[in-house]
């Protein structure tokens, strides 16, 4: 298994990136003050996209936080459903996954 400290640093870096991204999304959503109907309609469409991105980021933050908790408890890298070791190739792609390949599908 890849060095846990390396995985933890990777997860913490992604968590920081997502936090910054969420701040940017919130700032953008708060910045709209247009009174023009055409501009307002365009802003609403953009807001829906931004809100979707924000929700996705929040879900990833929850997943990363759970993975960091598993690291702290010594349970990282093992499937939370069956207890099998999660392969490095799977963790390379989705480092916060709580499931092995068999239980994920």
Structure description:
- The protein has helices spanning 4-30, 37-73, 88-93, 101-104.
- By secondary structure, it is mostly helical.
- Helix 1 (4-30) runs antiparallel to helix 2 (37-73).
- GO terms for molecular function: zinc ion binding.
- It comes from Cereibacter ovatus.
- It holds the Pfam family zf-dskA_traR.
- A zinc finger (dksA C4-type) spans 79-103.
Key attributes of the depicted protein:
single chain; 105 residues; mainly alpha; Four Helix Bundle (Hemerythrin (Met), subunit A); DksA-like_N
**Rounded radius of gyration (Å):** 18 Å
Helix and strand pattern: HHHH
The low-confidence runs, each spanning 5 or more residues with pLDDT under 50, are none
CATH fold descriptor: Four Helix Bundle (Hemerythrin (Met), subunit A)
Number of structural domains: 1
Mean pLDDT, nearest integer? 90
Q: What is the approximate shape? A: elongated
Q: Terminal Cα separation, in Å?
A: 22 Å
Total number of strands: 0
Helicity range of the residues? over 70%
**Structural class label:** mainly alpha
What count of helical segments does DSSP give? 4
Beta-strand residue percentage? under 5%
CATH superfamily: DksA, coiled-coil domain
Major beta sheet summary? none
What is the CATH architecture descriptor? Up-down Bundle
CATH top level is Mainly Alpha
């Amino acid at each position: 298994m890849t060095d846990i400290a390396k995985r933890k640093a990777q997860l913490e870096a992604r968590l920081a990136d997502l936090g910054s991204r969420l701040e940017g999304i919130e700032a953008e959503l708060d910045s709209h003050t247009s009174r023009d109907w055409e501009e307002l309609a365009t802003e609403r469409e953009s807001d829906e996209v931004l809100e979707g991105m924000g929700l996705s980021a929040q879900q990833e933050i929850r997943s990363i936080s759970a993975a960091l908790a598993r690291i702290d408890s010594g349970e990282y890298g093992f499937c939370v459903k069956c207890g099998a070791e999660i392969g490095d190739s799977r963790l390379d792609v989705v480092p916060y996954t709580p499931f092995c390949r068999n239980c994920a599908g």
